[in-house]
């Protein structure tokens, strides 16, 4: 090893996700068990630039495993995208004597972490924390399972009303550029169709969405719409359907930030706990600029560059399952 890592810094960045607290707890406790000091950084890269740093003990992460959000707060920072901003971040790293940085966040956060690592030769480990599940190299990101369950429960509730009033419900789901949440929630909630960025053209998907259910004499239908599959989201889809089929009684529900909150599922807590410990193990294994992930149930180290560069594919069998099961 070039030098022994005595002090690590940890931060959460980008959109908050349920299970981030479980990951912070694991990082802090695994580091301390390995005789490292932990400096907790508040408000992501903004806090790193502004030196919002506090040393954490094991007690500082007591009683948080079941809490959604992130006790370290999250933020987005335009300044960190600039070399000057990252210089300010490095000044804090030096001042606080941080030897390695652990970043819990999504692909934007990892892009920033990688630049910082390249520019200042500091070991950086990424832990995938985003409800979107859009990071290559890990089967699941922390927060995805919880969000999926939240969406499924919301759609189950909407179906009760949809059936009673014979309506077509369009439900807008988050996901940035990825359709994982939308497609999987559609399967889990037995929706009639999903409109996602990865598949076919929106016009084709729209036709399928309108045709399904109605064609088979169902008296209510639910279609999940990924927020960025079409400009204007579910509202835009509703306009098209209302024009062609005013008789459908189309209603739009935007789940919004409801999807990001709540107590993490057991799956997310266990994933976060494993990946938090794995991040410290990665530092002991002299890894740098990698993301810890889970593939086929095993912890893996993936170069940050690959996690950012490659796009995770939607599984075709899932897409086909939705088509087959919605008849
Ligand atoms: P989520 O997927 O939940 O939105 P994310 O990590 O992708 O999470 P972003 O808002 O894209 O969220 O990124 C978080 C922060 O990371 C940004 O506010 C910015 O400070 C930093 N960041 C993002 N992209 C870059 C970049 N290209 N260069 C430097 N820093 C970046």
What can you tell me about this protein's structure?
The protein has 327 residues and is α/β, with parallel strands linked by helices. Helices cover 42% and strands 18% of the residues. The chain has eleven helices and eleven strands. The protein has helices spanning 20-33, 44-49, 83-95, 107-120, 144-165, 180-189, 202-211, 233-244, 266-284, 304-309, 316-325, and strands at 7-12, 37-41, 53-56, 100-105, 124-128, 168-173, 193-195, 221-226, 250-254, 290-295, 298-303. The strands form two sheets. Strands 3-2-1-4-5-10-11 form a seven-stranded mixed beta sheet, sandwiched between helices. A four-stranded parallel beta sheet has the order 7-8-6-9, sandwiched between helices. Helix 1 (20-33) packs parallel to helix 9, helix 5 packs across helix 6 and helix 6 packs parallel to helix 11. It is elongated. The N and C termini lie far apart (59 Å). Residues 13-15, 45, 76-77, 80-81, 105-109, 111-112, 115, 130, 132, 176 line the site of adenosine-5'-triphosphate. Adenosine-5'-triphosphate is lined by residues 13-15, 45, 76-77, 80-81, 105-109, 111-112, 115, 130, 132, 176.
């Amino acid at each position: 090893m070039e030098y022994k890592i005595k002090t690590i810094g940890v931060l959460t960045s980008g959109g908050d996700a349920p299970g981030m607290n479980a990951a912070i707890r694991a990082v802090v406790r695994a580091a301390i068990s390995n005789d490292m000091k932990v400096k907790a950084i508040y408000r992501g890269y903004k806090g790193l630039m502004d030196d919002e740093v506090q040393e954490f003990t094991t007690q500082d992460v007591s009683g948080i495993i079941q809490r959604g959000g992130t006790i370290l707060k999250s933020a987005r920072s335009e300044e960190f995208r600039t070399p000057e901003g990252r210089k300010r971040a490095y000044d804090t790293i030096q001042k606080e004597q941080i030897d390695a940085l652990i970043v819990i966040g999504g692909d934007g956060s990892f892009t920033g972490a990688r630049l910082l690592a390249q520019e200042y030769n500091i070991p950086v480990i990424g832990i995938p924390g985003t409800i979107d599940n859009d990071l290559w190299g890990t089967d699941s990101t922390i927060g995805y399972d919880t969000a999926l369950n939240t969406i499924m429960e919301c759609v189950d509730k909407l179906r009760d009303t949809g059936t009673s009033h014979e309506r077509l419900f369009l439900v807008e789901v988050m996901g940035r550029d990825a359709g994982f949440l939308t497609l999987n929630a559609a399967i889990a909630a037995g929706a009639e169709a999903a409109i996602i960025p990865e598949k076919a053209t929106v016009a084709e998907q729209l036709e399928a969405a309108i045709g399904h259910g109605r064609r088979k004499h169902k008296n209510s239908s639910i279609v999940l719409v990924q927020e960025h599959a079409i400009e204007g989201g579910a509202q835009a889809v509703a306009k098209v359907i209302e024009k062609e089929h005013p008789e459908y009684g189309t209603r739009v529900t935007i789940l919004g930030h409801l999807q990001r909150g709540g107590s993490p599922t057991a799956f997310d807590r266990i994933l976060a706990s494993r990946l938090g410990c794995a991040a410290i193990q990665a530092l002991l294994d002299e890894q740098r600029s990698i993301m810890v992930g889970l593939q086929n149930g095993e912890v893996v180290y993936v170069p940050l560059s690959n996690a950012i560069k490659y796009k995770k594919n939607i599984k075709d069998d899932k897409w086909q399952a939705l088509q087959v099961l919605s008849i």
